[in-house]
Design a protein that fits this description.
Blueprint (H helix, E strand, L loop, with lengths): L6 E7 L3 H15 L3 E8 L6 H7 L3 E4 L5 H10 L5 E4 L4 E2 L4 H10 L4 E8 L4 H9 L15 E3 H7 L10 H12 L3 E9 L2 H5 L2 H16 L4 H11 L4
Helix pairs in contact: 1-2, 9-10
Length: about 230
């Protein structure tokens, strides 16, 4: 690759006003000269997320459809960097994120992610966080914030737009068939709000069940209906 990282940060959102208030300034502050563009792809927010993102200096693209796969693909299509970094609105990358990705790319890695830790000291969530250091079957979820060469992203055809859920695991499976997948040995911070609205055991069981159904080829819409039936997001 070119020795100079040109990084495009892509954030798919739906009603994330409060998170964007923190995240956009943080990305702009710490991206430094590596940051080419910060793209917020909105899926139909009603809480002022679009207006806020524009005011804070992000490039905003409106899809009017809450589909993370389609939103991230659109953000990639509008980007100008040689490396893409996909970030969920309720995660907080490290101040060193651009330098970390630069180092990984210079080592020859075309794709990878971070470990994470929750914004909670609950012992069971600490266990979940510890498990993200392993590059196994469950690695590469969206909360771990994926980086990937733009050229490689395009070679793979981007995220499968048929996936309304599990698009991240589907895409990482494709990556691992083609190249080594690298987990940066540092932890970003992720939100525990899903666990706050549900019990730890309920989330774990639903996640495991949905993941197994995903591996056995259950259609994405059915997987989403299982999530919506058993987990609260309010």
């Amino acid at each position: 690759m070119n020795n100079t990282l040109r990084l495009s940060v892509i954030i798919p959102v739906l009603n994330e006003y409060q998170n964007l208030k923190e995240l956009i300034p943080w990305i702009l502050k710490n991206g430094g000269d590596f940051l080419v563009d910060l793209i917020v792809v909105d899926g139909g927010s009603k809480d002022g997320s679009v207006e806020l993102a524009q005011q804070l200096g992000a490039k905003v693209v409106e899809l009017k459809e809450a589909s993370r796969a389609k939103q991230m693909n659109l953000g990639a299509a509008k980007s100008h960097g040689n490396t893409l970094y996909f970030v969920h609105a309720d995660t907080r990358p490290l101040a060193s994120f651009a330098e970390d990705i630069q180092k990984a790319r210079l080592k020859g890695y075309r794709a990878g992610c971070y470990r994470y830790q929750f914004d909670s000291n609950h012992p069971l969530l600490r266990f979940n966080s510890w498990a993200t250091r392993f590059n196994g079957l469950f690695s590469g979820g969206g909360d771990q914030s994926l980086f990937i060469s733009k050229r490689f992203f395009e070679e793979l055809g981007g995220f499968d737009s048929q996936f309304c859920i599990m698009e991240d695991f589907d895409f990482v499976r494709k990556i691992k068939k083609k190249t080594s997948f690298y987990i940066i040995p540092k932890s970003i911070r992720v939100s525990s709000r899903k666990y706050e609205h549900n019990s730890w055991l309920r989330v774990q069981l639903v996640n495991l069940y949905v993941f197994l159904r995903f591996l056995y080829g259950t259609p994405p819409q059915k997987l989403k209906s299982i999530y919506l039936k058993h987990l609260r997001y309010d």
